[in-house]
């Protein structure tokens, strides 16, 4: 009956070796991890200024004046990102917004739409989006989207930003 002891010693040797590796690599890996964490934190911080390739691409072809509007819109959009993916197809707490211009309200793959939004008959364009984002509850009574209204130049900048980034 040598089998169990053979497996036993192999396992023990493997465990010892991985332990050694961990001890040997630990201190070398830690600065790398710290670097990666710092990079992530940096991206989060300047995320609103276009850390990702999509907004970098768009920003590169804007005039200085449009750039200001775009960056302002992006900043205004940051709370929306908690619930919406603007240029992917990921549904979060709210529906993804890819291709939102021209889309009928409440008709994407998102499973959690309210009856109110689904039967609103709205087709999203600048005017209807502006009305909805200025006051979701008064534009679509019964909508489940909870968001403080946005107005004036902030709203204009947000719509400008959305028009550019949500295009498929
Ligand atoms: C707390 C989560 C949350 C936040 C923050 C939020 N939304 Fe929403 N949004 C939702 C939900 C949920 C719906 C679906 C509402 C319904 O079915 O009545 C929705 C719907 C929408 C729709 C309609 C989508 C469609 O397919 O018809 C748009 C456009 C929209 N949101 C844009 C925004 C923008 C822009 C912001 C930021 C100013 C924002 N939302 C902030 C949760 C959120």
Note the topology.
Elements: H1 3-46, H2 53-60, H3 64-77, H4 115-118, H5 126-134, H6 136-139, H7 152-165
Helix pairs in contact: 3-7, 5-7
Bound molecules: heme C.
Heme C is lined by residues 79-80, 82-84, 93-95, 97, 100, 105-106, 108, 113-114, 116-117, 129, 133, 143-147, 150.
Explain what the structure shows:
This protein has 168 residues and is an all-alpha fold. It folds into 2 domains: 3-47; 50-165, Orthogonal Bundle (Cytochrome Bc1 Complex, Chain D, domain 2). 58% of the residues lie in helices and 0% in strands. The protein contains 7 helices and no strands. Helix 3 packs across helix 7 and helix 5 packs across helix 7 (152-165). The radius of gyration is 25 Å and the shape is extended. It starts with a helix and ends with a helix. The model is unreliable at 45-49 (pLDDT under 50). Bound molecules: heme C. Heme C is lined by residues 79-80, 82-84, 93-95, 97, 100, 105-106, 108, 113-114, 116-117, 129, 133, 143-147, 150.
Q: What's this model, at a glance?
A:
The chain has about 170 residues and is an all-alpha fold. The chain contains 7 helices and no strands. α3 packs across α7.
Q: Keywords, please?
A:
Cytochrome Bc1 Complex, Chain D, domain 2, single chain, mainly alpha, binds heme C, 168 residues
Q: What molecules are bound to this protein? A: heme C
For the residues shown, what is the average pLDDT? 85
Number of helices: 7
Class by alpha and beta content = mainly alpha
**Helical amount:** 55-70%
The end-to-end distance, rounded to whole angstroms, is 67 Å
What's the total number of strands? 0
Percent of sequence in beta strands:
under 5%
Rg measurement, Å:
25 Å
